[in-house]
Structures are given as C-alpha cells and as structure tokens.
Amino acid sequence: MKTAASSFDTDRDALKRAAAEAAVQLVESDMVVGLGSGSTAAFAVEALARRLRQGLRFVGIPTSERTAAQAKAANIPLTSFGEHRQIDLTIDGADEVERGTLNLIKGLGGALLREKIVAAASHRLAIVVDGTKLVDRLGERTPVPVEVVAFGLEATRESLEVLGASTHMRMSSGAPFVSDSGNRILDCDFGPIADPARLDERIRRIVGVVESGLFISRADPVFVADAAGVHRLYSARAHRGSPPILVIMGVSGSGKSTIAEELAARLGWPFEEGDTLHPESNIAKMHAGIPLTDADRGPWLERVAAWIDGQRTKKQAGIITCSALKRAYRQIIIGDRPEARLVYLRLGRDLIAERLLGRQGHFMPAALLKSQIDTLEEPEPSEDPLTIDAGAPPAQVADEVIRLLHPGRLSPQPEALGSHDRQDARLEEGTVLRSPRP
Questions:
Q1: 256: helix, coil or strand?
Q2: Would residue 115 show up in a list of annotated catalytic residues for this protein?
Q3: 22-33 pLDDT, tens per residue?
Q4: Where do the domains of the chain lie, and which CATH numbers do they carry?
Q5: What backbone phi and psi angles, to 5 degrees, belong to 209?
Q6: Annotated catalytic residue within 115, 147, 272, 339
Q7: CA-CA distance, 38 to 31, in Å (whole number)?
Q8: 194: three-class secondary structure by DSSP
Q9: Tens of pLDDT, residues 42-94
Q10: Which of 2, 48, 56 is nearest to 22 (CA)?
Q11: Nearest 5 degrees, angle CA 61-CA 22-CA 43?
C-alpha cells in the first residue's frame, strides 16, 4: 500500500514539474518574476535556476521565506518592492482551480498573504497545477484558508462561522501555525461556493481578517499537467476582440495625453483627446473649480463610448484618454466591448500635484485634484487593466504599455487585422504543450 502511495506521489511530482517547466518558458530577459510558494512552485524555481545558468537575466521577488531560501541557494538574484513596485510575471501553484473562471483557492502552504500581495502587483499570474486541482466549483475539496490576527481570534472566528464556515485552526507541531507575517490561519470549509467573489468580499470585511485564500480574476494562464500532457487554460479575459482600442485612464496630471500621444506616434493609431468631448457646461464648471457630478459626466462618457464604437465599426485600432475614475464610468465606456482595453496610469498624489502646478493652459485646475482622488476607484482584476507606474519618463511608460500588449501581435497600422494576425500565440484549452516525464 505504501509503495502504491509513493508511486502516486512520484507521478504527481512528474506532472507538476512538467507544468512548471512549461510556465517558466513565459519568462523573458530582464523580467521581474514573482516566485510562488509550495511544492509546485518549487519546481518552477528549479527550472528558473536552470534558465539562469543558461544565460537568462531576471530578478525574483519571493512569496515566502522558504522560497527565498531556495532561490538564494540556487543563486537567483532577489529584489524587493523597494526597487520594483510592479512584477512582470508571477509563477505560483494553487490548491483548487475553478474551471471556466480560473478563480483559485490558495494558501494551504501558509503563504497566502504574501502570495496575494505579489499577485496583486503582477501584470500576469501564471498558475501551475496537476489535473487533480481542477474543480467545477471552488470549495468542493479544499477549505478556504483565512489569515487572521492572533488578537481577538475567537471573535474573528465566530464572524467567519456566521458566514457559514466550519472553521479549524491551522496547527503545526501541536501549536497554532504562525505565518511568515506573524498571523494565524483558520481553514474555513464553506462547501461548494456559488459566488466566490461575493464570499471573498464578505470575508475581508470582517475586522481581524488579514486576507482570504480566494484569488478572484487573477490567474491567466493556468498550466495543467495530466497523463495526456500539459495544457494551457485561459480565462475569458484573454479572448479579446481586435483590433484593440486603448482607454488611457487616471486622475488629472497622471500624463494621459502625453502617453497617448507617444503611443499614437509609435503605433500609428488614431488618437482622441477625451477631454475635448466634454460639453461646454462641464468645461465651464471645471474652469471655475467646481467638481463634476455623475450627472455632469454622463453625456461625456456617452461621447467617449460613441468614439470607441466608431472605431469598432470601422474595425480600426485607436487610443482615447478618459479619466474613468469610477467603475460605473468604466462600465459605460468599456461595457461588453471586447476590443476596449483599459490602461491605468498609476501615480502617487505628491508627484501628481507637482505636475499639475507646472501645467499651463489646462481647464482642470490643480485645486480639483483632491476631488479626483476622492472619486477614484482603482480598477479591479476583473476589469483586466494594464496598470502602469506613470512616474517614469513618457517614452519609458509607452515602452511598458507596448511590451505588455505584446507588440509582435499588434498591427502597426489602424486597418483591421487579418485572420492570421488574430491567431496569435495563445493556445486554446486542451492544447498539449509537452508530455510529462515518466
């Protein structure tokens, strides 16, 4: 019996290794790479170390002390958020993957907080699993780990049970498990979860909860290894329309127009300055330093949406600027338009204020910055934004946008893409990449 179990574990390790090696092929030179935690992610770190020895240059940000130790032992150069606010690609494992949505449960290895911090800062999160981790609904086989503060843990636990969880304290060597961040973990069994996004939101509202192990709308792609080989699964967000229409968003002073002009010059795409679509009444209010209301913005947002629809009708790529501060605004201009892609220029308040003070002739006065920041709802992962650090020089920001859009798959002209251009490097669900090692 023990021999059979050992053979099963060996087979699973071979599958995990094959999937990890396929995921590592996504890493390109000079990337910042998030290094996941757990047994599957450890295979990815091994494969990265091998590529490093072969000459690939990259730096890593580990999600746990154990991963950091493994990376250091393999001479993988490590960095931190002090040097890099954003990560190009993270490769990690998962405890459950929901078919279709690719929502995840993570955290059975105890590193869920750092894993989610790294995932949230990543342009792309590649997940590596064997076929046993695929489920129709999250929670079918695995509890949801919830990291909690030790103080008041009993009250926090009771609040989780009110949500319908059967909770169990994570233990290690007879004592409560302590995470790398000094917290405790409650494993919460909700059974099959009908609405993971809503449950995640309800969990995180509980005082004393640090983070939940539900990872919603973050994974893309997922590498799954089974007896037939390694398959890539893509979320619905990956299957976008083409040609793309970029919506450059951010608060006033983030550099929307400058970046859009830079992108338009490089890509040869039509560019529309969204502010010119404001009704005269809006411009007058902003000149007077009066913040716009939702009712004021409504006609403007409809005009932005109409411009996007015009490009779609002509089957032309395009670039338009729009502050798009609220999710409700973005729903108007993006909606179910698969060609529209959100590019969020993210910048700290002090640097934006400095830029606004140096700006001349714009109808948006610097005094309205606070109202814009108060209104801003940053895009969530489900909106699939390209989040860019806008503090770099404009040419460098444009370089990053183009790189993240995969310029080799973009038409440099505004004409419609041909069918062969639309058939890019993405592989559909079920495509075999590589057979696992025997």
A1: helix
A2: yes
A3: 999 999 999 999
A4: 2-237 (3.40.50.1360), 245-416 (3.40.50.300)
A5: -80, 130
A6: 115
A7: 22
A8: coil
A9: 999 999 999 999 999 999 999 999 999 999 999 999 999 999 999 999 999 99
A10: 48
A11: 55
